Amino acid sequence: MITEPPLLTVPAVAAYLSKPPSWVYRNIAALPAVKLGAQYRFRQCDLEAWVAAQVQRGISQ
Fold this sequence. Notes:
By secondary structure, the chain is an alpha+beta fold. It is 46% helix and 13% strand. The protein has one domain. A two-stranded antiparallel sheet has the order 1-2.
């Protein structure tokens, strides 16, 4: 059985990106988020791929 790592919360993503949680919420549509009920969660591997793509494109917000 393969176990998935735990999903990241908005505060954890904010800390990972060195941004405030409000930035994460404002940019939620561009981030690889999954909405579970009223909360958003992120897989770290998806977030790392998103960051790599942003670096490739030269986008900084």
